[in-house]
Amino acid sequence: MSGTDRQDKGEAGGGTGADWIAADWGTTNLRLWAMRGGGVVARRASGRGMSGLAADEFATVLAEATQGWGDLPVVACGMVGARQGWIDAPYAAVPVRGQPRMIRVPGQRVWIACGLSQASPPDVMRGEETQLAGLLAARPDFDGCACLPGTHSKWARLSAGEICSFQSFMTGEIYALLARQSVLRHGIGEARDDAAFDEAVADALSQPHRAYARLFQLRAASLIADLAPDSAASRLSGMLIGWELAGAKPYWLGHEVVIIGAPALSGLYARALRQQGVTCLLADAEATTLAGLHLARLQIGETA
Amino acid sequence: MSGTDRQDKGEAGGGTGADWIAADWGTTNLRLWAMRGGGVVARRASGRGMSGLAADEFATVLAEATQGWGDLPVVACGMVGARQGWIDAPYAAVPVRGQPRMIRVPGQRVWIACGLSQASPPDVMRGEETQLAGLLAARPDFDGCACLPGTHSKWARLSAGEICSFQSFMTGEIYALLARQSVLRHGIGEARDDAAFDEAVADALSQPHRAYARLFQLRAASLIADLAPDSAASRLSGMLIGWELAGAKPYWLGHEVVIIGAPALSGLYARALRQQGVTCLLADAEATTLAGLHLARLQIGETA
């Protein structure tokens, strides 16, 4: 992928040879790629996520953000398709084929990927379905589990070209709330104590209820036992990831796991899973998203 | 207690017959009682908690807040004795006698209760030690467990007039963060669905790792299964309290439990514990605090 990448220096546009635009339009960010087939011609990013936009602002924001790239079809995924987004792209219920279901914005050359839902246990995703499609495009015979760590981590079971089931965890959001807004914030630094992380993962996995009891101990140990802020951060991170692994065990136990996410966070999940003897592969999140959007682009085909 | 209570209507003061002042000076609130022996003559409250005050402001705030009550000794508990408070009242390590350890503010007729610490597992409390003292003053032979639900719930093992061990849980703070600041906030109402609460407690107690996995399901179920906001709130509350009970099991299993806290919250803990066949008593939080401060006042005695 990186061989075909280059930054947009203003001269990009229809003249660059791009023939479509890929968009990952999330809650807080908008990321755009001018694409030629499966290759990136230029990229842009802004903070104009869906949460700050009214339904009638999306078209203008998109036009401004893609200025100079020519009048090209746009294929998007993410919260732009939520009820509070541009249009409500209804959920497709699992099990589904990996290929994303797309819905066209009326009057626009814009297509948005539908999210996925699961009736029992109740769950939803928006955006990650496109990454799962990208993974299955690259590995159609993949039989295993995908882990997408983030604000709301997702675990998905993939088999025979289908997304069979999935489960979400609030780990990223809970970490941020505890580390920055709770009483723990006074003693939380950067998470870079591997031994503390490993120990907390193992504890939380083997005794989940004790991990809950141990949250306040991070505060107490920083007050009376000089627990270092970096160790406290690693313990908190390990505790929450260990908890998540305990809950997600039916997904990873006995399966190959592909982790799709930001490199540092993916590395922590891989470290925790490898402790449990699980075989993990790390996939590049951007490349996987673009592979999924490219698949959708091919599916839309001539209608665009 | 309530028989001797009356609101301060401005005429209270040395002339009311008060002979000391009780203070519960926490992080966000200051509560004051003009006392005659063990009885309340007048009460006041303000939002001038320790977190908004510099060390040199406490004396002025106290003088203003007790104006008209005469020049009386003040016996205080709570975060006023923290490192960031008026003076650092050092922790006393458990096991300790129930009687609170008091430290005098230099140059003032003010005494502050020392908090408690525990080396292993590391834990601290400030303020609750005074309530435990109050409980032991009323029931010197109590052999069981005290549960003090709140922002940071405390469980303490009491026996032979001593506080033997204790453990803290962040349940109240985590509930507030999840219900008001996380993605769950969109679907959380008032917790008043008893059946949903009971079910969530039982689930979390029997399968603590599943409770973590079920947090995001509250969001998903409100999106795709019309989960009512009041039921979602009760489920979240039950999930967290059930988790806490799972971690605190060595405290309550086979013991009598006295719950000291705000009535509504204490009622939820009692409901959850009684599901498990535990005998619970509810104690009035204010009365228990004042009993502990009165015990401290008697101990200080003539030096005041």
From TrEMBL, chains A, B:
It holds the Pfam family DGOK. InterPro entries: DGOK, DGOK_C, DGOK_N. This is 2-dehydro-3-deoxygalactonokinase.
